[in-house]
Known about the structure:
Shape: globular
Strand content: 25-35%
CATH class of the largest domain: Alpha Beta
Number of helices: 15
Amino acid sequence: MFSRVLVANRGEIAVRVIRALHELGLEAVAVYSTADRNALHVELADRAVCIGPPPAAESYLRIPNVVAAAETTGCEAVHPAYGFLAENPAFVRACEESDLVFVGPSAEVMERMGDKVRAKAEMRAAGMPLVPGTEGVASLADLRTAARLIGFPVLVKAAAGGGGKGMRMVAAEEGLESAFASAGAEAEAAFGDGSLYLEKALIPARHVEIQVLCDAEGGIVTLGERECSIQRRHQKLVEESPSPALDQDAREGMESAVERACAAIGYLNAGTFEFLLGPDGGFHFIEVNCRLQVEHPVSELVTGIDIVREQLRIAAGEQLERTGRAPRRGHALEIRINAEDPTRGFAPAPGTVTRFRPPLGAGVRVDTAVRSGSEIPPYYDSMIAKVIVWDETRPATLARAERALSELEVEGIPTTRELALDVLASPEFRSGNYSTSTLTDLEGRVPSLSLS
């Protein structure tokens, strides 16, 4: 095992990784921008290195600065967490060139899976069900041909990225040309690659993902699914496990498919395979996230497996203690709390948190880097906390989640707490019969979506 590890991130996830390092008896080195000099992750780390000014492009995304911070502090490994450089193959290679172990998959696998078109081709070869669409990067003429064949509505998507960027829903053929132009321009600006492909839009659809861990000896363990269908602008807000949409046969089908795919592509460390469930209940591969996910605590609570610890053990060359299917118990739910203003279309709302009181009690976990007096800077993601709850059954978990949210106090900035409470109270969510369209359907029907 390592003795000192650099955490190449900030905020709640940096705090999460630092705590895991300390629990393993390892030293943690933090990096920070000048905007984060008083942040909790800097305080908790054994050492901290300033890597630049507030903009991420000049600090957290500057590979030479991050690698130099690891080298000068004598680190043996780098944990990227999620976001920033976590899925950047050039960063992986820079770490390797400096004899630093990257806690994650290889640069080569990351590169292949980051190319959405190539990833789909490899998944197809591994027998993974795919959403109908073009088999590669497509011209406007290719899009028209494919759309006529599979039928509208369709999604025009960026080949090089994700997170909703470079994606357009097209309801009819006359919208294809403008969608092709705008999606291509957005993809070029976001990823430096304007290549596009087309998929059938499954409506209504559910977004379900499988968590997996793989060691260097070929050991693979799947940790079940997470339902991520409650989304705004393709960003997840609420996640739960198990999914109300899956029975045991469907669950085993998805986990078996992921296990085969991991073996086929030579995957290493933690990863998440994302799927869409169509109206018929069939699952279709979307993408692989070659990193730790924001919502990983949901899987931790139902399996009892500390995913960050396992990442570190795998990176240190250790084998998984268990392979196949991780045992599960109970039901877990995660609610993301974002610093966003519901009266301004949920625009980011940086500022000073004058009071922060997290909920406590049995079965409640809060992952955050915020405390009373914390500054929420305007340069980074708006998420300030994750409230995660567990109980034996889904109804008991929902009741616990509502109780926890009602106890959460955040003053000084607007947040999405009320939106989360409205979602949990909605008939669609309580019944388990919801989809990626549910938040749109709730607009005008619940208070938090009637303000802007």
